[in-house]
Write a structure and sequence with these properties.
- The protein is mainly alpha-helical and about 130 residues long.
- The chain is built from five helices and two strands.
- Helix content is about 45%, strand content about 5%.
- The chain has a two-stranded antiparallel ribbon with strand order 1-2.
- Helix 2 crosses helix 4.
- It is globular.
- About 20% of the residues are buried.
């Protein structure tokens, strides 16, 4: 029996573009908007690493954003404690022993292709309701 996955390179590229677009939008927002990450911190850091590897996020001067800056911005906006060493988080994620869990990328690709969810990352972002007095 031969193992396979049910997504194409086009699906992988589409997912990467969705994640990058989300980060572009989110890092330009204010933490006062009340957006919260409901997933695992390590998943958010893994997403930030995907974005950093793409080399598509730049600052106002056109310089590429470094990994730590991307992590700091996204953690601030989504109210997540910023890890002291984000690279260590990525290394730990890649060294996961539970192979049944699958990578975040694979889980998101499953949601996109099987679950027909165009933007799986948005499932893990919630807005805190403002209470009126």
């Amino acid at each position: 029996m031969k193992a396979s996955h049910d997504w194409t390179q086009e699906d992988e590229k589409r997912l990467e573009n969705v994640i990058i677009d989300n980060f572009c939008d989110l890092i330009n927002r204010s933490e006062e908007e009340g957006l919260y990450w409901t997933g695992l911190q390590c998943d958010l850091i893994e997403l930030a690493h995907i974005v950093w590897e793409s080399g598509q996020l730049r600052d106002a001067d056109g310089k590429l954003l470094d990994f730590k800056t991307i992590v700091g911005c996204i953690c601030r906006v989504l109210h997540v404690r910023e890890p002291c060493n984000p690279s260590a988080v990525v290394s730990a994620v890649r060294a996961r022993k539970n192979v049944r869990a699958g990578s975040l990328r694979e889980r998101y690709l499953q949601l996109m292709t099987k679950g027909q969810i165009p933007d799986p990352m948005r499932l893990e972002i919630r807005r805190r309701r403002r209470y009126q007095s």
